[in-house]
C-alpha cells in the first residue's frame, strides 16, 4: 500500500504462498495508519511466473470534526465548543487545539489548549478575518491533524450565528418544497 499522490515506494502488508481458506486474504488494522487516501495493490503470481496485478483504494477516516465545520462563520471574541467524533472505538490520548490567521506569510500556530476530552471551550480571537483551526489528535503512538478554515466576524451579536438542525431525507423519500 502507499498513500495516494505520494512518491513513496510500495510497502508490503502481506505475503503468502498458501491459498486463502476463507474469502479474506488479509485484514488491515487502520489504527496505526494516518487518515487519508491509500492505494492498495494486489499481486498474484503463479509457480510458473505468470503475474496478475489489481488495484483498490482505501479511505482511512478515524475521526471527524463536528463543530465548527469548514468555512463556518463564527462570532469573534466569544467562546465556542470545539468537538469531534471518533470512529471505530478510537481511544484518544490527547487533543491539542491550535489556530492562526490565514494570511501570508503564515504566522506560527497559537496553542489554544491541550485536553484529554472533547468538547473543548475555545476562546475565539476578536480580530475579524479568515483563520485556520487545527486539531492534533494523539492515539496509538501517532499524531494526526485535522485542519479547517473558518471566518471570524467580530460584528456578530452574542448568541449568533445559529446552526439550524436538519435531518437528510432518506433515500427514496420525496422532498416537497412549498413556496
Description:
The protein is 0% helix and 44% strand. The chain contains no helices and 11 strands. It has a 5-stranded mixed sheet, with no helix packed on it. It has a 3-stranded antiparallel sheet with strand order 1-2-3, with no helix packed on it. The protein has a 3-stranded antiparallel sheet with strand order 4-6-9, with no helix packed on it. A hairpin with a 5-residue loop joins strand 2 (36-45) and strand 3. It is elongated.
Layout of helices and strands, plus pairs?
Blueprint (H helix, E strand, L loop, with lengths): L1 E2 L32 E10 L5 E10 L2 E5 L5 E3 L3 E8 L7 E8 L8 E6 L4 E4 L5 E11 L2 E12 L26
Parallel strand pairs: 5-11
Antiparallel strand pairs: 1-2, 2-3, 4-6, 6-9, 7-8, 7-10, 10-11
Q: What portion of residues belong to β-strands?
A: 35-45%
H/E topology pattern: EEEEEEEEEEE
- Strand arrangement within the widest β-sheet reads 5-11-10-7-8
**Helix share of residues?**
under 10%
Quick tags:
about 180 residues; mainly beta; five-stranded mixed β-sheet; three-stranded antiparallel β-sheet; 11 strands
Amino acid at each position: 500500500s502507499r498513500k495516494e499522490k505520494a512518491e513513496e515506494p510500495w510497502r508490503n502488508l502481506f505475503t503468502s504462498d498458501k491459498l486463502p481458506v476463507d474469502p479474506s486474504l488479509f485484514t488491515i488494522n487502520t489504527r496505526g495508519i494516518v487518515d487519508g487516501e491509500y492505494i492498495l495493490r494486489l499481486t498474484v503470481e503463479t509457480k510458473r511466473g505468470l503475474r496478475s496485478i489489481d488495484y483498490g483504494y482505501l479511505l482511512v477516516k478515524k475521526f471527524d470534526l463536528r463543530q465548527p465545520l469548514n468555512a463556518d462563520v463564527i462570532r469573534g471574541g466569544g467562546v465556542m465548543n470545539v468537538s469531534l467524533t471518533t470512529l471505530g472505538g478510537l481511544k484518544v490520548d490527547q487533543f491539542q487545539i491550535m489556530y492562526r490567521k490565514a494570511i501570508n506569510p503564515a504566522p506560527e500556530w497559537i496553542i489554544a489548549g491541550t485536553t484529554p476530552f472533547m468538547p473543548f471551550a475555545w476562546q475565539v480571537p476578536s480580530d475579524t478575518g479568515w483563520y485556520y483551526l487545527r486539531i492534533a489528535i494523539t492515539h496509538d503512538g501517532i499524531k494526526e491533524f485535522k485542519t479547517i478554515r473558518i471566518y471570524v466576524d467580530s460584528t456578530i451579536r452574542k448568541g449568533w450565528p445559529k446552526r439550524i438542525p436538519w435531518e437528510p431525507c432518506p433515500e427514496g423519500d420525496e422532498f416537497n418544497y412549498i413556496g
